[in-house]
């Protein structure tokens, strides 16, 4: 089902390193807090926070997905208060943008000093919510991607590279 | 927000409405028809009514579940709408888009 990597491990490492450097420059003199959207963003979040060269903090959230319950809500909320803080919301893939739009709206309601969006992958083909993406790893064509935290029905998260899956799951 | 009893033309439209409701995104179903062709006296002779309007994003969405080879008519209407109303933000979701939007794994991790 998967063949050659779309982005191999070295390419991902280099891009994450660049993003870390860019964030370090932009947030120099501050103590930003990275907020990761579980579960698929976990490897990216871990690598990104190790790539920044300034002090930072780390927290995670998770939300239920379409088909799980009547409406979107946080399943796991932040452990810290973000009021007055510089927040970097980290996602693995932005597709429709609807989940991230919700998470962003909730977090903005808590009064952060700023909130920027960072995504490993941007697949704009079916974008509905107009999200301003400040840090973007790679832009994707309309393919289903696995590896580096991204799964196909629970599989392939452990792979170190990103692969186009041969079929889009039904 | 329309109720679940709203008369959708196709099941995929009802599914998109459910998706938008889940995310708390306000929507309107076929709220407006746009003239897209005119006769020689500038009277409109053809209209296009996109399926959904999302006021929060000022975005119209048209769904089609026809096979790609039969999308010509919808593509033409969307193109004419963009040409004649360049300020209108419209997006066409094809059969493949609809299938992928609602696929099991995509739903499980859609962001």
How is the topology of this model organized?
The complex is a heterodimer of chains A (170) and B (111).
Chain A: E1 2-7, H1 9-26, E2 33-37, H2 42-51, E3 57-63, E4 74-76, E5 86-94, H3 98-108, E6 114-122, E7 135-139, E8 145-146, E9 162-165
Parallel strand pairs in A: 2-3, 2-5, 5-6, 6-7
Antiparallel strand pairs in A: 1-9, 3-4, 8-9
Chain B: H1 11-22, E1 28-29, E2 34-38, E3 44-48, E4 52-54, E5 59-63, H2 72-84, E6 90-93, H3 95-101, H4 104-109
Parallel strand pairs in B: 5-6
Antiparallel strand pairs in B: 1-4, 2-3, 4-5
Describe this structure in words.
The complex is a heterodimer of chains A (170) and B (111). Chain A is α/β, with parallel strands linked by helices. Helices cover 23% and strands 29% of the residues of chain A. Chain A contains three helices and nine strands; from the N terminus they run βαβαβββαββββ. Chain A has helices at residues 9-26, 42-51, 98-108; strands spanning 2-7, 33-37, 57-63, 74-76, 86-94, 114-122, 135-139, 145-146, 162-165. In chain A, strands 4-3-2-5-6-7 form a six-stranded mixed beta sheet, with helices on both faces. In chain A, helix 3 (98-108) links the parallel strand 5 (86-94) and strand 6. Chain A is globular. Chain A starts with a strand and ends in a 5-residue tail after the last strand. The model of chain A has no long low-confidence stretch (mean pLDDT 92). With 111 residues, chain B is an alpha+beta fold. Chain B has four helices and six strands; from the N terminus they run H-E-E-E-E-E-H-E-H-H. Chain B has helices spanning 11-22, 72-84, 95-101, 104-109, and strands spanning 28-29, 34-38, 44-48, 52-54, 59-63, 90-93. In chain B, strands 1-4-5-6 form a four-stranded mixed beta sheet. In chain B, strands 2-3 form a two-stranded antiparallel ribbon. Chain B starts with 10 loop residues before the first helix and ends with a helix. The mean pLDDT of chain B is 84.
